Every structure is written in C-alpha cells, then in structure tokens.
Amino acid sequence: MIKKIKRVQKVLKAAALHSEEFRKASQMECPAGCSLCCLKKDIYASPLEFLPLAYHLHQTDKADAFYDELELRAENTICGIFTPLSLDGWGCTEYEYRGLICRLFGHSTTSDKMHQKRMVTCKTLKETPAYQELKPAQLLQAPPFQDYYMQLAAIDFQLANESLPINQAIKRAIELVSTYYSYRGTKKPA
Ligand code: SF4
Ligand code: SF4
User: Fold this and answer.
1) Which domain holds residue 99?
2) DSSP states of the chain
3) Is 143 in the pocket of ligand 2 (CB under 6 A)?
4) Ligand 2 pocket, 81 CB below 6 A?
5) Ligand 1 proximity of 34 Cβ (cutoff 6 Å)
6) Best mutation site among 23, 37, 120 for ligand 1, i.e. most ligand atoms within 8 A of its Cβ?
7) Stated pTM of the model
8) 39 lies in a domain?
9) Does 136 map to a domain?
10) pLDDT band at 187 (very low <50, low <70, confident <90, very high)
C-alpha cells in the first residue's frame, strides 16, 4: 500500500509542477482567492488520486472524523475539503494532498478527435488576454490531462478508472487505507 501511495504522490507532484510551469509561462493567472472550480457541484475524481490524502488523514488520526463528516453531508456534493473560511482565501484545507483533477484543471490540455489540443480550463481563465493569445506551440507545453491519468492507471488500473463524485472518491480512499492498516494493526508502514 505505501509503495502505491508514494507512486501516486510522485504523479501528483509532477502534475502540479508541470501545471505551475505552464501557468507561469502562459501567464494565465487565477484571480487571487478564486475558488470557483472547487465550488462546482459535479467534480468527479478517482479514489486513487486521494490515497495520499487518506493516508495522511489516517496517520494524523483524522480519517474517521473526516469520513463521518462526509457521510453527514451526503446531499452536499461540493468538495468536503473546501472551506470558505481559509486564511489564504483559496479554500482548500488539504492543499498538499489535493487530487490530480485539482492540480490539472485550469492549466492542462486534452486532445480532440482531430488531435487538436484544447485547454481544460474555466470561463474566468478563458476571458484572460493570456488565454486568448495562446499559440498552438504553447499548448504543447501544458500538462496533457489524459497522460497524467494514464500514469495513475499504470499504478492501479481499477482504482484510477473509478470515476466518482469527489466526496465519494475521498471516502473510498479513506475506506481502502483504513481497512488496510486496521487489518495490519499498525499505523506505521512496514
Ligand atoms: S481555475 Fe478558474 S475557477 Fe479555478 S481558481 Fe483558477 S480562475 Fe478560478
Ligand atoms: S481537494 Fe482542494 S483543490 Fe480539490 S476540489 Fe477540494 S478544495 Fe478544491
């Protein structure tokens, strides 16, 4: 399990770095404190991309409480990690452990049927001059959305391809990690 989590972490870090490099190069900047993408009610993610978060929650004895919180908000499909009260104004309370979708959305690309690159981004960024002036060559520098999900699939095909509403994906990740380490009777990885 810990090897799998570390491999996922590596993909998550690479995606964040790639996305950050593209953001800087393209100058497509999110307005300070904008968290509209976190407030979407229909974010889908895989349990695999939240294994590092689940492991972190487990190691800090917060997994059960957070799982119960997610159970209680079953009707509320906004990401349970989001808070409008964060000090930095962005709202993600577990930024270091955010999922792959969170790292790629806004500054990544997908390929259409004609193999043309298209940005996977939001209305706010599409309205920026930087977006409107993007050149095809620049799009090649952006993280390719599918490539990063394929890297996750290479780690665990089934868990990477389970597309669930984000809170369900997080719950499933917590269940997997908690069950694994409860069975082993230890919190510390061997
Ligand atoms: S990607 Fe778009 S919606 Fe999300 S924070 Fe940036 S500007 Fe806001
Ligand atoms: S994990 Fe963080 S970045 Fe991702 S949707 Fe939730 S609040 Fe937003």
Assistant:
1) 2-184
2) -HHHHHHHHHHHHHHHHHHHHHHHHHT-PPPTT--TTTT-S--EE-SGGGHHHHHHHHHTT-HHHHHHHHHHTTT--S-TTB-TT-TTSS-BTTGGG--HHHHHTTSEEEE-TT--EEEE--HHHHTSHHHHT--HHHHTTSPBHHHHHHHHHHH-HHHHH--EEHHHHHHHHHHHHHHHHHHHT-SS--
3) no
4) yes
5) yes
6) 37
7) 0.92
8) yes
9) yes
10) low
pLDDT tens track for 27-44: 999 998 899 999 999 999
Q: What's the structural domain count of the chain?
A: 1
Is 190 inside a domain boundary? no
Residue 186 near residue 75 (C-beta atoms within 8 A): no
CA–CA separation, 160 vs 154, rounded Å? 8
In a domain, 189, yes or no: no
